[in-house]
Amino acid sequence: MSSLPTQAGGVPVLVLKEGSNRSRGREAQHGNITAAKVVAESVRSALGPKGMDKMLVDNFGDTTITSDGRTILDEMDIQHPAAKMLVEVAKAQDNEAGDGTTSAVIIAGELLSRAEELINKDVHPTVIIDGYRKAAEKALETLEKIAMPVDLKSQDFLKKAATTSMGSKIVAEYKDYLADLAVKAMLAVTEKQGDVYKVDVDDVKVEKKTGESLRDTALINGIVLDKEIVHSGMPKRLENAKIALIDASLEIEKTELDSKINIERPDQIEGFLKEEETMMRDMTNKILASGANVVVCQKGIDDMVQHFLARKGIIAVRRAKKSDMEKLARATGGKIVSSVGDISPSDLGYAALVEERKIGDDKMTFIEGCKNPKAVTLLIRGGTQRMTAEAERSIHDALCVIRDLVQEPKIVPGGSAPEMEMARVLRKCAEKMPGREQLAVRVFAEALESIAVTLAENAGLDPVDILSELRTRHEKGETWAGLEVLAGKVQDMSKANIFEPLSVKKQIIKSANEAASMVLKIDDVIASGKMKGPPTPPGGAGGGMGGMGGMGGYPGAGEY
Ligand SMILES: Nc1ncnc2c1ncn2[C@@H]1O[C@H](COP(=O)(O)OP(=O)(O)OP(=O)(O)O)[C@@H](O)[C@H]1O
Ligand SMILES: [Mg+2]
Questions:
Q1: Nearest ligand for residue 74 CA
Q2: For burial by CB atoms within 10 Å, which of 5, 418, 464, 529 has the most?
Q3: How far are the Cα atoms of 137, 145, 162, 193, 423 from residue 410, in angstroms, in the given order?
Q4: Model confidence at 530, in pLDDT bands (50, 70, 90)?
């Protein structure tokens, strides 16, 4: 029965709408945990430099190839509400830190999986949640302790961290070259305000164009628009550009009302056309009067206006993106005007050079030497569209890692060294803890160790051997001992130059713990008739994906 049947004198009292699903207590927990575990399982094989990539096909048949945790989960059309919470973890991680999404989801999945074992042993979820909270606090404290402050004056560590983040992506072959560009780009847009540095990833414009190879990716000192100059009669290159940024259509606007004009004589038509021409000439003259020699328009430009502008030797670009207009305004010091009549010389932006260049099969407009030197564009090149798309995602991770380090200049080693150290400290803490919370802290440590296990598994190494070696070396005080998967052995990660920002690791712990606790707190799932209810899987943990066609297709979905 789907609604809440309460027997009152033999008459069922319907509380919920017909067709609603409800599951409670263990059943609800089991369903939620299993769904979340399946999601975590699906990204597991993508972790680390030896991780595999996923090919995701959407409803329209478009494919994405990626190893980025957030992208994988975004592209999978996940329906189960608890599974969606893990997607939220990836999103939170991506928004806060930009990297570490796969790790956060894996740890959240492990925390839930191990919590279920404890629930089966009659440990109450609130005790587990409390234990996890204490463990997370201690883990964060440990991270702070092992982190090493870095001096931003030398770009060394920025580059090493950016290289590490790209080392686990398809672009790994070119990681050094790309990391170098990413560091240069971010430093170009970094501002010092008093004692703190401020930097925004969005200030680096990223454009991609298929063709050539990743090696030809370039950093341009200015803004690149993926637009060509509108008219063939316009110059293709202009120095000392005075740029008008217009957010209005340079066309004769059609009236919204349908109207009819009766024309009786040919001269009336002529008068009509003349009037239109005058209006367009007027627009052109207003632009000319401002002293502009380049026009970037967010809307369309009429053929006749193009022609008039071309005759005056003015460059024009139409249908620029709103975000590009904003970047241009910041870069060139210009103001975006929404009416042609309003342009004044003080609204114009300045750039040393505006030039159209052929990139691959297309033409792009380069606006270089802007008034504000803090304007840069990374132009990504790559053999196929899928390659440039994945390169864009990987470069985004690297830019975020650099931002994280600039804002909090502390690094930790990679290759699961910090996770192993946190696990060691937690186990020691657990010894002193009373009662059942101790169990929760211990499983928290195991969940952290799953990063080492997964890195080893993905690299085809024996996870048991690796884990025991890592544990022993951490016991001996080798805080920075981690698994270098490219060499296939446990070593001091500082010697392997695998570094990550402290803030990424801290965020992983926070996001994973929050999500796990949220799922654990739920003991009642009520799904309205319209929604497919959360599945109650038939017995035990369900590893593997069980088909990628959305979690709604999980065995037993909506069957209770
Ligand atoms: N050479 C290496 N040897 C061992 N571990 C490495 C190496 N390079 C990176 N790692 C580790 O790989 C993990 C990162 O893998 P990956 O980039 O695939 O996932 P993520 O950063 O958690 O998520 P995403 O990048 O998808 O947002 C980190 O734990 C990092 O320390
Ligand atoms: Mg990463």
A1: 1
A2: 418
A3: 18, 11, 14, 19, 20
A4: low
